[in-house]
Design brief:
The protein is an all-alpha fold. It is built from four helices and no strands.
């Protein structure tokens, strides 16, 4: 089973924006635990906040912010 987001790509995109996951969560209004679970593949992110987080992180990787 594949994770909803590519962990390394997300972390690289966050570094390019001079931020980290915790700061990104605070800015976007999501809980750090939820975002961390999506990033680590614990949450499958099929619906709800997990899907929203995965979609936004994938957009960040694509450069869409």
């Amino acid at each position: 089973m594949e994770a909803a987001v590519n962990r390394n790509a997300v972390l690289h995109a966050l570094r390019k924006c001079n931020t980290n996951l915790k700061e990104w969560c605070e800015k976007e209004g999501y809980g750090y635990r939820n975002a961390s679970n999506v990033l680590r593949g614990i949450s499958r992110a099929h619906f709800g906040h997990g899907k929203e987080i995965a979609d936004k992180l994938n957009a960040l990787v694509r450069g869409e912010k």
